[in-house]
Structure formats: structure tokens, C-alpha cells
Amino acid sequence: MQLPQESEVVHWIDTPTPIGELVIAGVFMTNENWGLKEMRSLEFYSMALILEGGGIYRDETGVEMSVQAGDCIIVEPGLQHQYGCEAGGTWKEVYFCFKGSAFDDWRRSDRFRDRRIFNLDNVDFWSPRWFRIVKSRPRNFFEVVATLTDVHLLINQVVAGEQVDWSFEERLEASKQHLQSWPPNTTIDWDLIAGECGCSYETWRKAFSKQYDISPARFRRNALMRQAGRLMTRSNLSNEELADQFGCSDGFHFSKLFKSVMGLSPQEFRKQLTSDHTKSVDVHD
Fold first, then answer.
1. Quick one: which of 102, 124, 159, 227 has the fewest CB in 10 Å?
2. pLDDT (mean) for 48-65
3. How far is CA 37 from the centre of its chain?
4. Under a CB-based contact definition with an 8 Å cutoff, are residues 121 and 163 in contact?
5. Which ranges in the chain are annotated with CATH 2.60.120.280?
6. Where is the HTH araC/xylS-type domain positioned along the sequence (predicted)?
């Protein structure tokens, strides 16, 4: 995937959940002497992936080491630390910050072992996983939980072993799950998803279609309409409200798209939900 060419800060919505809370995210880059003047501490966790360049990491425990592109830096709350590039160096990172007691268990686990730096090496493989989180724009509790779940999954992948070498088929399956879980009514970053497989969009699209016998766009459409069906089983949203939530121009567009996938119009679907044939309605992926 193509890396950003300028710094950016993402301010997430302030929504606490049982599995944590999102704080801030973004991309930072500089070619100046940055980050090494004094120690600092945070009130939350920070997880950064160095995309280009490198420099030094130090903290109050006495750790001091060189870091470079492909290294992941995880900083826990309250730890006095500093990292950045020296004069004449360059630094580009993608990062996100989060907090919550659910993340404290990671810090106490044997797998973490008080480590700060994880050598991931392959930026092309790992960066799409960071950008998936950074580019998420959760608008409600449900979407915040989904993004935090991705954070937990990424931590698990990182601490499980830096040299994880997924096969192309495993990466393809991961991209399929990403496509399925992409928030409704938001524009899909196809290049980002393709980047999870380490290839261009066109190469990924052809591989996806061959592997699953369906194009990515059609798979996404089907997944959205099944999701709409599941929502209809537990809510009384109108076609217009569903259209707005699932990225359709109006209620008529939603109705037409829903029927093309489910074989029933929304009205027919609702009738079946209240009939003895409810069990025959398939809303599962």
C-alpha cells in the first residue's frame, strides 16, 4: 500500500466500553531532531509502528536501544520514556492510543514480559493492520467495540511472535474478514484491504474472486444485506432508515438491493419474521 506523505491526527469519539476506550490515532513524520530532549509519560497505552527511518528508544527502566522501520513500540501508561530520531535522521510512524483495564491484562501476561519493542520487520505486511485501525471512524458504541476488538487482535498477533509468516491464503482469508466487518455506510479503502495480502488491488481482486467464486464487491454487498436482515429481526427500522445505515441512496434503492440478495423484499421479509416460516429466513453469512 502507498504510505501517507504528511502527518495526520485522528480524534476518536469518547465512548467507554467493557473492552477499553479509544483515545487518539494518526500518522507522524519528521526529519528533525525529535523526541529525545526529555522523558515523557502518557495516561494511556500507545502502540506505534515505524514505517520509515529510525532512531533511539529509552525509558526509566534503563532500556536504551536502536529502533528502525518495522519495529513496533508499545508504551504503557505512566512509563517515563522517549523515542525519536537524532539530528539528520528521519522518522515516520503510524500509531494509535487506547486505555482500559482489559489492556492491563496484556501487560501482566507472560507473553508480554515487560517488552517495549517488537521486531516485526515486514512493514508491507504489518502496516495495513495499523491503518485498518487508524482509518476506522467509529460513530457509535457498536463500531467502537469493533475497532477495539481489532486492537486486541493486533496486540495478540504482535506478542505471539514477530516473525509470523502467514501464507497468501491466510492473508486472503483475513482480508475477507476485514471486508465483511468494514463499518456500513463508510467508503471501503480497497487498496488498504488488498495491502493486507501484500499485493495491488487488481491482483487481490482476481485472487479473491478465484478463491471464493465471488467478486469482492458482490461479497461486500451480500454481507451488508444479510447484516441488514439480522438488524431487521430485532428492530423496527424503516426502509429509509436502513438505507441511510447501509449506504443506499433511498428506501427504494435499499429494497431493490435487499431483494437481489435475500430473494425477498423487505416487506416480505418482515412478514416472514412474524409467520410460522421464520426459521426458513437465512440471514447468516
1. 124
2. 90
3. 32
4. yes
5. 8-165
6. 169-272
Radius of gyration of the chain (CA): 22
Residues in CB range of 77: below 8 A, 6 or more apart: 41, 42, 43, 44, 45, 99
- CATH of 219-280, picked from 3.40.50.970, 3.90.1180.10, 3.10.20.310, 1.10.10.60, is 1.10.10.60
What would the grid cell of residue 167 be?
A: 501464507
Q: What are the backbone dihedrals phi and psi of residue 264, each rounded to the nearest 5 degrees, phi first?
A: -135, 145
Mean pLDDT of the chain: 86
Residue identified by cell 451488508 is 224
C-alpha cell at 272: 416472514
State the pTM of this model: 0.63
Q: What is the mean pLDDT of residues 64-68?
A: 89
- pLDDT for res 164: 54
**Domain at 8-165, CATH from 1.10.287.620, 3.40.50.960, 2.60.120.280, 3.40.50.720:** 2.60.120.280
Residues of the chain with CATH 1.10.10.60: 219-280
